[in-house]
Amino acid sequence: MRPEVALPVIIPLLAGAISLLFWRSRPMQRFTAVAGTAALLLVSLWLMISVYQEGYVVMHMGGWQAPYGITLVADMLSAIMVLLTGIIGLGLAIYSLSSTGPHHEKFGYYPLMHLLLAGVLGAFLTGDIFNLYVWFEVMLVASFALLILGGEKAQMEGAIKYVTLNLLASVIFLTAIGLLYGMVGTLNMADIAQRLAVAENQGMVEVLAVMFMVAFGIKAAAFPLFFWLPASYHTPPVAVSALFAGLLTKVGVYSLFRVFTLMFDQTMDYVQDLLLWGAAFTMVTGVLGAAAQYEFRRILSFHIVSQIGYMILGLALFTPLAIAGGIFAVMHNIIVKTNLFLISGITRRLQGTYELKKMGGLYKERPWLAVAFFLSAFSLAGIPPLSGFFAKFVIVRAGIEAEAYVVTGIALAVGLMTLYSMVKIWNEVFWKSLPENNLVPESPAPRGDDGRLVKNTLGLMYLPVAVLASFALLIGVFAEPLTTMMLTAGEQLLHPEGYIEAVLGNGEALLQSALEVSP
Amino acid sequence: MEPLMALAIGLLYATAIFMMLRRSIVKLVIGLMLLSNAANLLIFTSAGMTRGAPPLIPEGAQGPIGAVADPLPQAVVLTAIVIAFGVLAFAVVLIRRAYEIVKADDLDKMKDTDT
Lengths: 519, 115
Hints:
The complex is a heterodimer of chains A (519) and B (115). With 519 residues, chain A is mainly alpha-helical. Chain A has helices at residues 3-21, 26-54, 76-99, 102-106, 109-125, 129-147, 153-184, 189-197, 202-220, 228-232, 238-262, 268-291, 296-317, 320-351, 362-365, 367-381, 387-401, 405-431, 458-477, 479-494, 497-504, 507-517, and strands at 57-60, 71-74. Chain A has one domain. A two-stranded antiparallel ribbon of chain A has the order 1-2. The longest helix of chain A is centred in the N-terminal third of the chain and has 32 residues, at 153-184. The radius of gyration of chain A is 22 Å and the shape is globular. Chain A starts with a helix and ends with a helix. The model of chain B has no long low-confidence stretch (mean pLDDT 88). Chain B has 115 residues and is mostly helical. Chain B has one domain: Helix Hairpins (Orthogonal Bundle).
């Protein structure tokens, strides 16, 4: 029994159920949101400590031994992702207390938020490929409903694209699982990894690898499959945007890391170039798309795409250092990108718009907000000593060591372009004076995202922003111990024997007996 | 049986993709429905369509006797059907609401959030 592996999934499910029970009681739902995510953060810390001490923490659900039952596994990568989800979850729950209006809360914002977190965490922890699909769907259904919360025209249009392309990805994923099961006759990922390594039909393995790459590529918003993201992420309430931006695409990236290091590592010769150039184009198209935009959240949405490129580049280079860099980029991006979205929500509250042209003067008015934005934005662009610099530094160094000079050059150039976008936001929102034709009342009545009046609780919005911004700085300060942690994760991923043995116990004997039975 | 199933599955995938490429959102959802059905049939077929007894262990025996059907793909397909059902119910409501709000059935008229 290792409860710390199961609890990160159980707690949000339980919190979601409790908030459903108190459907009519707004205070109770708000209390459950904060209490549930706080408990989640504590449990994710517990899991992190266990994994740090033992390497792998495994729990077989219902006592059914792998590969027959569903296994929950946490290695370093899973633990890092779970911890980040815990941090973002609590931050967003607090932020939502102020930003989400009563009308949205009444339509189940909090239960859906818990469900989404449960889906994300389940995907990070499961060791079963079909179970991964199920968690993806849990996450997707919750995200669908959150995306159209409020039901405005733009949300409907965005949702149709989001729903269609994500369902298409799910079906490709499901198809690949079906074919994979036909080949190896098991769904446990560790077991699949063993059997694929000795599979006769390696051509089919490559086909499956590409199918998984396309399915997760859509979910991760990699080039050329990212179109749903910039079309939908700027439409929902800002807390939902921030939650999506922080976590959803990263689940796709996590799955790519997991699947290609564990199951399809022998096809890497074949898919490496695809991943490498996919990463390069993802970086470039994302950053160019952002350059053309003048709406706060649209710029940030395109930058999500661009940053996904760095993470996939880390995977594509396929050295321990590169994978460590990729995971570092995931960590940095979850913190910083969520924070930028949260800041866009505060500026919207203050000035009533997301259009950069209509905003201005916030540096004078809210200097501390400007500092928080400065830290996050320049971290995203990779300015030392902030978190983004070290993510980029590790990846670029790995790229040079792997002699992938062109892609590494692109990664550096994209960093410069990111700086351009961030400076654009800085100039328009914080530096220039407020345009005269934008009549912001002296003290605007605070309105939630549903447009209704709320109590003036700007402090609740500032709190997570301040904490996340200080994380951007702290990650930079403590870059060395963190990089060591990422390197551990990278080593674990590149040597999946440890994972397989942790899941299957004495794997060799089991495989032998399995091979003898099968015809 | 397998070649026949393969043909049917291929046809379902092709029809689904064709429907999804149409401009009408109703046809888009029909495409999604067919697509999930195609995937379910594919799991069922690729797991091996052998005749076999139900996988029950007789009393006193250590394992099932003789050739039995593999229960796992059936459980998997059942789960996938339920998920597809839920998601499609959402999609149907979504296109209805979208039609009410955008007042068009045409995807070409839903370009405001692009660029």
